């Protein structure tokens, strides 16, 4: 912290607008620019002057207070939200040190509030009821719609009343398996309104993955839709849910009600499979309920939602977030990291099935009374048409989308005006400097700062992020920590390293939206996140810090791979593969992929005597698709007569990663392998 403050102070003396990067056209971008990754890109003076945080000195002043007096800093900010009753004496309490006992984090305990009330009622009451809360844009041009704050509140209340009527109570889990229709944020908010704990499962997950989550959190009610269209394809979501419910019922988790939204543009009622009594059409019941519904006031530490995410081992983990701290933190980070103003139109391309859709499609923006755009499944090529149609001012997306648009060519961008844009954002994986520059120069015409936000499902909100206008950016760096966040870089032994360095990224002290536990498994919470480096929260990411104190995230250091910004556990993919009757063993590694960031590369050892055929390759890929979801489908299957193992039987992934990326000259020491000849066999089969 000391060091960081010193670095920022030296930056604080740089005159804003002193240097600007020249306008470049896409022709000379690309790798030639990557060498200039230490370039400072200054915001324009015009932008800085109107920003919430106009200069480094202002950030420094606020940051300093946030770490020296977290209680004072955060209680001032929390007071801007509505509390039915203020929190108790202690603003927060924490123990992040496993050596001192159970890990425990609490913020605003004793404070009574409701996040749905803060998102909707508060905005309606303050005179913004007729402002558009959500714009919705369908699969095809011409299918669109919008809801004002008043209308959204009415719809949320109707669903909340229905849920109460069928017996959902405070603390009960509700699983939501919906595509990006307005009904998805409506469902989340309705749960929050009555104190139910939502668990959204991304509608690209398979029946097995859905069943696994249902069996873990045992909801009474599942909310879904009969189908969704993705491009020309129709996906029968209800069939997936049916299969999941069958599976979970067999394992003692039976669901009473499956409320199904009829998505007419994808599938008719007649062709939807139906189980009488359990299955109910949303449109038949919900509109009959009153459009007002009393709020269930909850404690700041009452759970708000569960969201399952992949880890390096075992089954997915149910990350649990509570109400008060999450509300204060997501609302505040949204405001500062995007320099949000009431006149903005904000578009985040994430699906509510992931954390980004929770914190920065639903809660963060609505807490600020923002107008949000949530398209169902726009083809990438329609991006800029949509930006112009809605006059989008803040556009938040993932590097994988930036790279695929970049490949398509500038003309797809420049044929649209995009003049409404003023802030761009990136999330999900490190953005490579060449993609950063293209995004900045071509999409934003060198006028829009890019908020490269680093954070995680576990952190609930942005942790390291630029504050647009506050300081110069470096393409590819997430810059500085948000208020109250104290990142540290540690070495293998867990010692903090100062100044310019590389190592493991940890966080010292809690922040309001930190996850509180893994549902039903506090021990795993401690083991995974707090035991590796005692005293700190371990992020699982590698990171370096440069001479100016800028942070550069370098990717996961555990066995998690990041495919198009989606976290996938190698262990999950391996366990899907070995369930295939002809697969004896599998090892999965991530490998660089031009568009997706990382691709999934698998080494498969077949059962003795089974020949490697194209058909088998397809069938293995299909197994992963049906057990996890299409987004986890392997990119490459490498036949492996044997895997490189130590004498104690541990697979040496380091060697597999090198083989996968064809860095054959860098295999390192293979003499400790039980059978060094497997390496040559693998190399020989690399392109089979
Ligand atoms: C990666 C998504 C670099 C990182 C919000 C992290 C990033 C994981 C960035 C969390 C970024 C996310 N720069 N890496 N701006 N944002 N990551 O839980 O490896 O789906 O640990 O949360 O994504 O993924 P998750």
Automatic annotation (TrEMBL):
* EC supergroup of this enzyme: ligase
The Gene Ontology biological process annotation of the record reads:
acetyl-CoA biosynthetic process from acetate
Q: What is its EC number?
A: 6.2.1.1
Which SUPFAM superfamilies does the UniProt record give? Acetyl-CoA synthetase-like
Which molecular function GO terms apply here? Answer: acetate-CoA ligase activity; AMP binding; ATP binding
- Sorted alphabetically, which CDD domains does this protein's record hold? ACS
Query: Keyword annotations for this protein?
Result: ATP-binding, Ligase, Nucleotide-binding
List residues of the AMP-dependent synthetase/ligase domain. 127-510
Q: Where is the signal peptide?
A: none
Q: Catalytic activity annotated for this protein?
A: acetate + ATP + CoA = acetyl-CoA + AMP + diphosphate
Does the keyword Nucleotide-binding belong to this entry? Answer: yes
Record-linked InterPro entries: Ac_CoA_lig (IPR011904), ACAS_N (IPR032387), AMP-bd_C (IPR025110), AMP-bd_C_sf (IPR045851), AMP-binding_CS (IPR020845), AMP-dep_synth/lig_dom (IPR000873), ANL_N_sf (IPR042099)
AMP-binding enzyme C-terminal domain: from which residue to which, for each copy?
572-650
Nucleotide-binding keyword on record: yes
Task: Give a single Pfam family match.
Answer: AMP-binding
Q: Which residues form the Acetyl-coenzyme A synthetase N-terminal domain?
A: 59-119
Q: Identify its protein family.
A: Belongs to the ATP-dependent AMP-binding enzyme family.
- Return the protein name: Acetyl-coenzyme A synthetase
Lineage summary? Eukaryota, Viridiplantae, Streptophyta, Embryophyta, Tracheophyta
